Amino acid sequence: MSCLRRARHIPLLRLRRGLSSSSSGAGAGAEALPPPRPSAGRRVVVTGLGAVTPLGRGVGATWDRLVAGRCAVRALAAEDLRLPAETAGRTLEQLPSRVVAAVPRGKGEDEFDEEAWTKDKSISGFISYALCAADEALRDANWLPSEDEKRERTRLRRLSPYFIPKILINMASGHVSMRYGFQGPNHAAVTACATGAHSIGDATRMIQFGDADVMVAGGTESSIDALSIAGFSRQVKGIVYKI
């Protein structure tokens, strides 16, 4: 997750007031002028980073373990499936692939504290990862705006009755927006493993077009479950995912 900013503030809209042309001669009108054209020379900088990965929670922990050659891939355990105990073991035995790279959960400094980020029943795994990573990125950027104007100029890149809110792709950016009060444009890209890079590119263009001054952009996923593992273990267009 990244927090990006525009190096120089340029207002999106300028209002020009004039007298109304009504016969009474009273009243005022407002004309919205078009935003400035995007400029390839307009600088966009990354000011904050956040991460929740199988190597650990936080950019520092992830990077240190990555350069140290640590591997997060391990054998799939029954508890990873998050199913009732009486069915988890049987389901695990039926899966053709039993290798995963799971986010470490717990109360440790570099572990993902699930209880702290899933207090709302409408928050699923991938949304909780996005909330945690966005919080780190915003704090790293020292950008926790309290003024409405700054919130409006900040964008995200954010069967139970909670089923639909838990699976909608845009709910990750939506929950981040609600948590921090961001009121700017909200956009959710869905391009598989390229989503994070895609979102950063979209965020850069949004800044260049003047639609926002600050953006939070990134990607999130939580797919360690029986259905996802079984699906990726099947042959697709000549590629065999079975391990």
UniProtKB/TrEMBL annotation:
Entries under InterPro entries matching the protein: Beta-ketoacyl_synthase, Ketoacyl_synth_AS, Ketoacyl_synth_N, PKS_Beta-ketoAc_synthase_dom, Thiolase-like
Region listing for Disordered, in residue ranges: 19-40
Coiled coil: none
Domain of life per record: Eukaryota
UniProt entry keywords in alphabetical sequence: Transferase
Entry EC number(s): 2.3.1.41
Gene Ontology biological-process entries: fatty acid biosynthetic process
Alphabetical list of Pfam families matching this protein: ketoacyl-synt
Recorded GO MF terms: 3-oxoacyl-[acyl-carrier-protein] synthase activity
Protein name: beta-ketoacyl-[acyl-carrier-protein] synthase I
